[in-house]
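Treating backbone geometry as a discrete language has practical consequences that deserve illustration. The amino acid sequence and the backbone structure tokens for this protein are reproduced below.
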Amino acid sequence: MGKAHANPNAKQNVKVEVRKPNSEMTDSERNKLKQQNKANANPEQAARNKEINDRKRARREESGSVKQLG
């Protein structure tokens, strides 16, 4: 048997931050990490989504919209 070779066409995973054990991560931290992983996997879609979300934020700011909790 020959040596196993790495697949040259495989995507390289880029880790952005060191993960904490799940018991120490808050829901917010978990969701932010998930979004970062999605952005690394598909940067074109992440750029489109960022543009859309920025437009929404600007529109909300112009209208004076304020989040109300509860």
Q: What stands out?
A: Residues 43-63 form the longest helix (21 residues).
